Amino acid sequence: MKRELDIVIISDTHLGTYGCHAAELLNYLRSIKVDTLILNGDFIDMWQFRRRYFPREHIQVIQRILKMAAKGTKVYYITGNHDDALRRYSDFSSGNIHLRDKLILKLKGQSYWIFHGDIFDVFIRISPFIAKLGGKGYDWLILFNRFINKIRMAMGLQRMSFTKRIKDGVKKAVKFVGDFEQTAIRLAAEEQYDYVICGHIHRPQMRVQDVKGRKITYLNSGDWIENLTALEYKWGRWSIYEYDPADYEYVNPMLRVKDKDYQAVEDDEEQSDSSNQDAEAFLHYMLGRPEGQHEMPPL
Q1: CATH superfamily assigned to domain 3-286
Q2: pTM of the model
């Protein structure tokens, strides 16, 4: 049975890269029914996109989101640094899909400021070319990390994350994360927001801080490269979801209780011609379109 949620926020999926855990994200998206889905930046990695590498699972993630939108889910695509080319099309909407640079929400009388967070990254603004090269190096490190983890799992050892160890071991990286969070909280207080929600730094987080008598809640949805996390809002409360493979282990059909809301036929529906065409149209739109064309292809 699908879990019903009011809002889900995911960020930094980096579709089109070796590090993206698209199969796991697909499992997660299939397991939920949500009113509003917010893709908080770096959904498709345009910096490292290769036409020769866009696996089936990556296409299926797009198909699933389009299908959710067709069934009534409001989808907000917020631009990040790896998909910053889309910022020239900001404020575009088509049906339940909306492209934005930031999002302002009001929930239970409290104001929310939602954006990717790369505006705080001075390095990206000063030297975007070097930042892109660093992104490629990060992608290759993730790929090598997966290879090592396969060997470790075969030997009965636990998985390990090279990138986490590097970040935790380098004082400058730790300081950057701390500065990022503090800057977001300070600016949210200055702008009179109660919540500020970001992505970008690939670190899931929930913290509350008092700034001159004003309580500011900082949330970060993490990523689907290292942490496989999302922010979920239900019954007026936020929580951090962490992917657990055990939740999606295969169950023998003979033992499964039938549920009309969750049928195995869903997998077959994902492969329909119309669904494939919709995903391809979405990809063409995301990855560039001819000059002068201002309308998104029909979904």
Answers
A1: Metallo-dependent phosphatases (3.60.21.10)
A2: 0.74
